[in-house]
Amino acid sequence: MKTASFKSDFLVAAIALVILLALPSIVGGKAFPDFVIRMSAYAVFATSLNLLIGYGGMVSFGHGLFFGLGAYSFALMLQKLGVSVPVALMGTVGISALIALIVGAICIRLKEIYFAFLTLAFQMLFHSSIIAWTDVTGGDQGLTGGIPRPPFLGIRLDDPVHLYVFCAVMLVGSLLIMRHLLQTPFGFSLRMIRDNPNRCGFLGIRVWRVKLLAFVVAGIFGSIGGLIMSLYISSAYPDFAYWTMSGEAIFMILLGGMTVFLGPLVGAVTLLLLTDVISSTPALKEYNMLVLGLIILVFALGLRKGILGSVYEWWADRRRPDSTANPEAHASGSHH
Amino acid sequence: MSQKRHLGVKRRDFVKSIGALAAASTLGFPYVSRAAGKVIRVGVPTILSGRVAQVGMSSLNAINMEVKKFNDAGGLGGRLIEIISRDSKGKPDEAANNVKHLINSEGCEIIIDAEASSGSFAVQEVVRETGVLCLHTVSETSSLTADPKIRVPSAFRVARQGIHDAVVSASYAATIAKKNKLRRWMSCSPDYAYGRDNTSLFLDYLKRFYPDMELVGETWPKLFQADYTENITKILQVKPDAMYSALWGGDLVSFVDQSSIYALFSQTKLFATNLADYTTMSAIKNLPDGIHSSNRYLKAYPATQENHDWADTYRAAHKDWPTNWAWENKLAVEFLVAALTKANSTDATKMSEVIRGLTVKSPFGHNGTVTMRGEDQTIINYAIGWGATLRKEPFMKDVFPGDWKMILELEAEWKEKSGYV
Amino acid sequence: MDFEALFSCVTSTSCIITQTTGGLISGMLLFLVAAGLSLIFGTLKVTNFMHGSLYMLGAYFAYTIFNLSESYTLAVIGAAVGVGVFALVFERLFMSRVYGSDVLLQLLVCYAFILILDDAVKLIWGSEFLAMGMPEAFRKPPFFIAGGVIPVFYMFLIVVTLIIAGVIALLITKTRFGKIVRAAAINPTMTSSLGINTALVFGSVFALGGLLAGLAGALAVPVRSLVAGMGFSIVIESFIVTVIGGMGSIAGALVGALLIGLVRSFGAIGFPLFTEGLMFVLMVVILVLRPSGLFGKDQ
C-alpha cells in the first residue's frame, strides 16, 4: 500500500516536472523562468516549515535560520573553497543537518510559544553572527562578486536554461521526498504526536526522536530553499536569516493552507504573484505594504484554512453531502 | 481528542493541487515580457517603504522633474522616456529580483539604480549578467566601481564616492584639529559596510595629515538604532577632544539630540560628515553650534545661480527641500540624456562609450562641470565642501572647498595600495 | 572583543556609574513597552507582535499634539490615551476574532497591521524622518554625580517610569479590576460564568497595554527621531525582555528590561560588534534553563 502511494506520487511528480519544463517555451520570455526559480526557493522553504507547523504541531518562528544557512554555506563553499557544485550541495545538506540536530535537540524540549521563541532566538543569534563575522560573510553587504558555478556532469548553472531545469528538478524532487517521508511510519507518528503527544508516549513512540527527526528534515529542506535563492541572485544576504523571512514563510503556509501538503506551494505562488502585481501597478506600489497588509487581514479573518484548504474542504463537502459525520471539517482551524 | 484531522493524507488533493498550480501559472500575466518599443523605458529600483523611504521618494522626485524636461523637448526624435520604479524595501535580494523583473518583464533598456549600498551590489550582479546600461546614483561604497572584479563595463556611478569624501573630510578636520589642538579622537559610526569603510578611510587620512592625532576609542551603534545612550556614555568615559561620525538621516538626528542632553558637544567637537542635508538639519530642533559637516546638499554651495534655482524649483514642485540623493539622480538623468542624444540610440554599448569620459555642465560641479572618469566609470569634480554648520539658511559658513588635485592624487595611491590597479 | 576596556571600566567608579545609569535609562522605555506586551500575554494569552507599531503611533501622536499645543504634558497624556483607544478598537474589531485559534492567525493579524500602520504613518506624516526636539523645561545642563553624568530629562524619565510601574503593580494586585484580570487570565470561562463581562476585561487589558506602549513612544519622542518602521526594532527587544522576565509578569518585565539595558551598556564596551548578539545569547540561555523566565510561573 505504501509503495503504491509512492508510485502514484512519483507519477504525479514526473508529470508536474514535464509540465514545468515545457511551460517556459509556451509562455515565452525571460521573466517566467525567473519567477519559477524564485518561487521554487520559497515553496521548498515554506513546505519544509509546514512539516513542523502543519504536520508536527511545532510552531517555529526561527526557520529562516536554515534558509540563511543554506544560502551562505552553499555560496561560501563555491566561492571560498572552490569545490564542485555536487560537493557544495552535499556539504550544505550535511551542515544544515548538523546544525538542525543541535538546535533541534535544545528547542524541542520546549512547548508552544516557548519553543517558538527559542527558535526565534537561535535565528536572531545566527543573523547577528552573519553580520558580525564580516571577514567571511561580508557582513550586511552580503557576499559580493557573484557565485562561481563550475560545470558538472555537463550541467552549466551559469546558463539560464540549465539553471531553470536544475531548480525545477530541485523543487519537484524536494517536494516528492518530503511527501514520501510523510507517508512513512515516521510521518504517521509525527501526526499522532501533534494530535496527542501523551498517548504516543504510552504507545511506546519515542516522541522526542520523532520530533527531532522532523526538525532535522525541515532544516535540510529549508536550507535547500536558501540554496536555490543564492543561485537565483548569485549572492547571500543576512536578510535571509532575519525573522521576517520566517514570517513570510508562515504567511505562505497560511495563505495556501497548512492542512494540505501542497498548500505552502500554492501560498508561495500566490504571495509572489500578489506582490509582483502590487509593485507593478503604479497606483498601488507607493503604498504596497498597506495593500498587502489589507489582503493579509482579509485572509486571516476570512479564509482561515487558506486557498487550497478551503478548496479541499469544499470538494470534500460536495462529494459527501451527508457530511454530518465529518467532524474534521470544522476542526483544523483550531490547533492549540 | 476524538477529532481526527486528515492533513494532506489524501492523494486526490495532490493531483488537484497540480491543477491549481497550472492554473496559477497561466495567471502569470506579469511575467509576459513587454517588447522594447517606441517608448524608452527606464527602470528605477529603489527604496520606497520603511525607514529610508526618503531615498526613493527624493530620488524619484528629481528624476521625474528632469525626465519631464526631456520629454517636453520632444524626447529622442519623438521617443519619450517612461520611468518605472520598484520598491525593494531596502532588501538586497528584492533589489536583484526587481531589476531582473524591470528588464525581463517591463522591457526596461536602462536602469537608474537608486538603491542603498548593499542593494547596489546586488543590482551590479544583474547588470553584469544582462549587459544593460546602469547608473548607480546612491551607493558611495568605493569598491563598487574601483574594484575591477566588481566593476561592470555598462555600469556607472553618478554619486559621491567614499574615498573622495574621506580625503576632503580628513584634510578639513586636520586643519581644524591642528588649529585647536584636537589630538584625541574617537569615532561613532553605524556598524555596516558604509559606516565602517567611510570611517576607517577618514581615520587613515586624518593620521596622515595630522600625525599627532591619536585614536582613543571607537563605538559602533547598529544601523537604525533607536537608543544611543550606551554609545554616548562610552564617549563620555573616554572624553576625546573630537569625534568623527558617519551616522546619517534619522539616526544622526537621534544621536545629536541624545548627545545634547548629556552636554557631550561642550567637551567634544563633532565632525559629522552627513549632517548638512536639508532634511537632517531642519529635523534637529536644538542644533548645537559649531558642528562640522560636509555639504550633502545645500543650495548655498556651490554658490551659483543654477544651484539656487534648481533647489527652489524642486521645493516648489515637491513642497520639500532636495536631498543629497536628489542632486545625484538629477545628474544621472543629465548624463543619460546626453548619452541618448549623442549616441542617438538606446544601445547599451554605444551609450556606455559616450558616457565614458563625458563632461557635462552641472550646478553641482566643482567648477560648473562634472566628469565621468573613463577608467573606472565614476564621477569626479563634483562639489565637496566642509564647514561649520549654522542653524538657519545658508546652514554652513566659510565653506572649505575640496581640492580635486589632491583628491585624485591620493585616490590613485589608494587604488594602488588596495590592489585595484 | 575588548576585555581590557571592559576590565578597566568595571574597576572605575565613574565608568560604572555612567554605564549603569545609561543601562537603566535604556531599560526604562523598554520596560514600558514590554510591560504592556507582558500584561496582554498574561491575561489574553496573545502575543501582540504589533506592539512596536503602537509605540510608533504614540510617538507620532505626541509629536503632533506637541506641535499643536506646545505642551509636552498634554502630548504625553494625549498620546497615551489616543493609543489606548486605538488598541481597544483594534482588539474589539480584529484581535478578538482570533482568540483561542491558532497563534499563527494572531501573528498574521498583527503582521497585517504592522504593514498597514507603517504605510499609514507614511501617508499621514510623510516619508521623511521627523524630530520633536527637547521641551523647554528639560533644556538644562546634566547632573554630575561621582564622576557620572545624568541628564535632567532622563531623571524625569526614570521617575515617571518607576511611578507607572508602581501604579500597574497596585492596579493588578490591589484593585477589583486587578482581581478580575487575574481570574480571567486563569480561567476565562469560569470568570464569565460568574457574570463578569470578559470581553470588557480583555478589551481594557489590551487598551492598557496599548496605553503603556503609547506612553513609551511619547516619552521617547524628545530624544528619538520618528520614522515609519521605527517600531520594528523595539518589538524584538521587548520580546526578549518579556521572555527573560517571564511572560505575563510585570516585575519580570522590569527586571528583564533593566538587565537588557545593562547588557547593552556594558556590552558596548566589552563586545562593541556583538552587543545585539549578546541579547540573543541571554535569551537562549534563559529559555533553555528556565523557559518560563525569571519571574514566570512554571509551564
Mean pLDDT of chain A: 87
SS class of chain A: mainly alpha
- Name the largest protein-protein interface in this structure: A-B, 72 and 62 residues
- Describe the largest sheet of chain C: 2 strands, antiparallel
Characterize the overall form of chain A: globular
Silhouette of chain C? globular
Which characteristics define this entry?
heterotrimer, A: 336 residues, mainly alpha, 15 helices, globular, disordered C terminus, C: 299 residues, two-stranded antiparallel ribbon, 73% helix
Explain what the structure shows.
Chain A is mostly helical and 336 residues long. Chain A contains 15 helices and no strands. The longest helix of chain A has 27 residues. Chain B has 421 residues and is an alpha/beta fold. Chain B is 45% helix and 18% strand. Chain B has a five-stranded parallel β-sheet with strand order 2-1-3-4-5, with helices on both faces. Chain B has a four-stranded parallel β-sheet with strand order 7-6-8-9, with helices on both faces. In chain C, strands 1-2 form a two-stranded antiparallel ribbon. At the A-B interface, helix 1, helix 2, helix 10, helix 12 and helix 15 of A face helix 1, strand 2, helix 3 and helix 4 of B.
Lay out the secondary structure.
The complex is a heterotrimer of chains A (336), B (421) and C (299).
Chain A: H1 2-27, H2 31-55, H3 64-81, H4 85-107, H5 112-132, H6 134-137, H7 160-183, H8 185-195, H9 197-202, H10 207-233, H11 243-256, H12 263-280, H13 282-285, H14 288-302, H15 306-319
Helix pairs in contact in A: 1-7, 2-7, 2-10, 2-11, 2-12, 3-4, 3-5, 3-10, 4-10, 7-10, 8-10, 11-12, 11-15
Chain B: H1 11-26, E1 40-46, H2 53-72, E2 81-87, H3 92-104, E3 110-113, H4 117-130, E4 133-136, H5 143-146, E5 155-157, H6 162-180, E6 184-188, H7 193-209, E7 214-219, H8 229-238, E8 242-245, H9 249-261, E9 269-272, E10 276-277, H10 278-283, E11 292-297, H11 305-318, H12 324-343, H13 348-355, E12 359-361, E13 369-373, E14 378-380, E15 385-389, E16 396-401, H14 404-417
Parallel strand pairs in B: 1-2, 1-3, 3-4, 4-5, 6-7, 6-8, 8-9, 10-11
Antiparallel strand pairs in B: 11-15, 12-13, 13-14, 15-16
Chain C: H1 3-10, H2 13-44, H3 51-69, H4 72-93, H5 103-125, E1 143-145, E2 148-150, H6 152-174, H7 176-186, H8 188-193, H9 198-220, H10 231-245, H11 250-270, H12 275-289
Antiparallel strand pairs in C: 1-2
Helix pairs in contact in C: 1-11, 2-6, 2-9, 2-10, 2-11, 3-4, 3-5, 3-9, 3-10, 4-9, 6-7, 7-9, 10-11, 10-12, 11-12
